[in-house]
Amino acid sequence: MKLPVISGKEAVKAFEKLGYAPVRQTGSHIRMKHLSDPSKTPISIPNHKVLGKELLRKFLRDADITVEEFIKLI
Fold it and tell me: Looking at the 3D structure of the chain, how many domains does it have?
């Protein structure tokens, strides 16, 4: 399945549905941590208009979800 073209804000909203929450922002990067499972890797999402495909794929690997699961969240 192909990855969608989304913005950083859309990605933040999708990861919030997974239980991640923004903890801080440095410049254009929003740092997110999982609230209920601290063993999950924190994610740093750039607040850009379009996220690169490989970067988005890395976020999905870090969150341990599939592309199909992610598409349902957005």
Answer: 1
